[in-house]
Specification:
about 600 residues; mainly alpha; two-stranded antiparallel sheet; 29 helices
């Protein structure tokens, strides 16, 4: 029998019956802990502030996340401020005579050596923007989103301050740009990654909120073009950078006040209500607060639920059935099996090629546009005209990055097409009706998403090879849409066919490998400016041919889907996923219970 005495000491609760579980984890107790010392809110308090957290996260992503993707505008400002202009020597500069890194009219000189050094800084920063997702995911799994966000906002503020300080004496302090851009990339991805857990607090709106988070991340490339407008209006560069650093400190303060230490739980977790919603109703004392609720809930589950595997095996009341089921699922699905699956390997190829294509264009766009105007000529009049056109087009490119906020939900809609209908149909389908399996529908949607995205990538590769300036508007649109689509499509296929507990690690590993492949953009940039004399045609042609490899992933998905439908292969819920990867689909919380 179960007897619970309503006493004034919480310790008597766990001692009043042998059915009760071992002591609760520290994070659920109400004793003094690190949360109290750091002024972090509880999950229930954060849940009550979820709309404030979500709205501010969207704006913070726009202003602080992947701002390096607007490199074209930052490059123009760094060039105007004289970063690495001291490398320009007579005969190699692009604008004529100079003294101590300056032209005859007093402006800073520009040259190929300067462009290569600044592009190297962009390469390092953009590498860290993607490569640190794997260790960052591990950090978030251990400590939640609060610490990465605090670290990210601090690094971002420091990077802005370093750029401002370096601009006072660029001849001596230009080297600081490498450290500053590294901190900028790392801080930006910390802010972005920590935002991806917020949609878990919104239930049915989770997909919409996730699209907004990804869209605001992709649209953050508009920040530097916006800053350049302020810069062109006459505001000093140092004032802009120090102001931006101060705004990053506001992000730090907002995180201190509103973000919890714990990760926002997935709505599909069995203890979501226990962790978040019902905690709002629980009184904050030892008898009727968290500890009382969790103990009684745990005992009730153990007394009323059967074995998670349906084998009739009896369990003692001191066993946590959810933990037992989760441990067995983890044993059945080793992470190395997911990593070695064909879908993941093909996704690495697709994402690596796409990332290289997009990053190279961001770094070389100004030089490409300049070549369209000059066609290799270097007279002063032609170069002045080219500078004006490049300034204008880089501003247009930055403004178009806001399209990501609109286009990212589109790919999410494609990935979710008819999923809910198939979930309802799957509850009443017969043994052979595999077409009603929602996993098969997810594969179908993923095929459509990747084919559509790769077609846009090929179209982008074709238009950027045509030396017609007005056509570059369409090139900008293709670039922006592809950048918003590819990450959502890749995340969608991982969520469809892999266990939930592998999702973050797979995304992190994929981003790391893609970042390594994207490092090739620096030698390609040197090749374009050196042996090819600024003509990007042959580099773009090679990358266009490489882009066709992206169709291998949807081709493989189509082949496997066809095999599944032909053979009628079905292993229960998530049978398509098991057939594709060898991994049984992780059971839902209700099934595990």
């Amino acid at each position: 029998s179960l007897s619970l005495s309503h006493t004034t000491r919480g310790d008597n609760i766990s001692a009043s019956a042998g059915l009760l579980s071992p002591p609760l984890p520290d994070r659920l107790s109400h004793g003094p802990d690190c949360r109290d010392l750091q002024m972090a809110p509880s999950l229930s308090q954060a849940y009550s502030r979820r709309w404030w957290i979500a709205v501010t996260a969207v704006f913070e992503n726009l202003i602080f996340s992947a701002v390096l993707l607007g490199w074209a505008s930052l490059l123009l400002m760094l060039t105007n401020e004289g970063f690495y202009s001291h490398l320009c020597t007579e005969g190699r500069n692009a604008t004529g005579n100079f003294t101590a890194g300056r032209d005859h009219d007093g402006t800073w000189a520009t040259c190929v050596d300067q462009a290569e050094m600044l592009n190297l800084g962009f390469t390092v920063g953009s590498f860290l923007l993607s490569a640190t997702t794997l260790p960052l995911g591990i950090l978030m799994d251990r400590h939640g989103p609060r610490i990465p966000r605090l670290v990210g906002s601090s690094c971002f503020a420091l990077s802005c301050a370093m750029i401002a300080v370096a601009s006072y004496n660029p001849a001596s302090l230009s080297a600081l740009i490498f450290l500053a851009l590294s901190l900028n990339g790392f801080g930006g991805i910390c802010i972005t990654f920590s935002s991806l857990t917020i949609p878990n607090m919104f239930g049915n709106l989770r997909s919409t909120l996730m699209s907004l988070m990804i869209g605001s991340y992709a649209s953050s490339a508009v920040t530097f073009p916006g800053i350049k407008v302020v810069y062109d209006a006459g505001v000093p560069f140092t004032v802009i950078m120090f102001t931006w650093a101060a705004l990053a400190c506001v992000v730090f303060l907002n995180c201190i006040i509103n973000w919890p230490i714990e990760t926002f739980p997935d709505p599909e977790e069995g203890d979501f209500v226990k962790k978040v919603k019902l905690n709002v109703l629980a009184l904050d004392h030892k008898v009727t607060g968290d500890r009382f609720y969790v103990h009684v809930t745990a005992v009730g589950q153990r007394l009323s639920q059967r074995s998670p595997h349906g084998d009739g095996t009896k369990r003692f009341s001191t066993e946590d059935l959810g933990e037992v089921a989760g441990a067995k699922r983890d044993d059945r699905v080793p992470f190395r099996k997911s990593v070695c699956s064909a879908i993941f390997l093909w996704s690495l190829v697709t994402m690596g090629v796409t990332q290289l294509r997009l990053i190279f264009y961001m770094g070389a766009m100004n030089k490409m546009l300049e070549f369209i105007v000059t066609h290799g000529r270097e007279s002063d009049d032609v170069l002045d005209e080219a500078n004006e056109i490049v300034n204008f087009y880089s501003s247009i490119f930055g403004i178009l990055q806001l399209l990501c906020l609109v286009t990212s939900p589109v790919i999410g809609y494609i990935m979710d097409w008819k999923i809910q209908e198939n979930v309802k149909c799957s509850e009443s389908r017969s043994q052979g009706q595999l077409k009603a399996d929602p996993s098969v529908q997810k594969l179908t949607n993923a095929i459509r998403a990747f084919v559509f995205t790769n077609l846009l990538l090929v179209a982008f590769g074709i238009t950027c090879m045509v030396n017609i300036l007005p056509l570059q508007y369409l090139t900008f649109v293709f670039h922006t849409v592809v950048r918003g689509f590819i990450h959502s499509a890749c995340g969608g296929i991982y969520a469809s066919v892999y266990p939930t507990n592998h999702f973050g690690s797979l995304i992190g590993l994929q981003s790391l490998i893609s970042a390594v492949i994207a490092l090739l953009q620096q030698p390609l940039f040197i090749l374009m400016l050196g042996p090819l004399a600024g003509n990007p045609f042959w580099v773009n042609l090679g990358l266009l041919g490489l882009s066709s490899v992206g169709f291998c992933l949807p081709g493989y998905l189509w082949y496997q889907r066809r095999q599944i439908l032909r053979g009628g292969e079905r292993t229960g819920e998530g049978g398509a996923s098991e057939a594709l990867t060898g991994n049984p689909e992780p059971a839902s919380s209700e099934t595990a219970a």
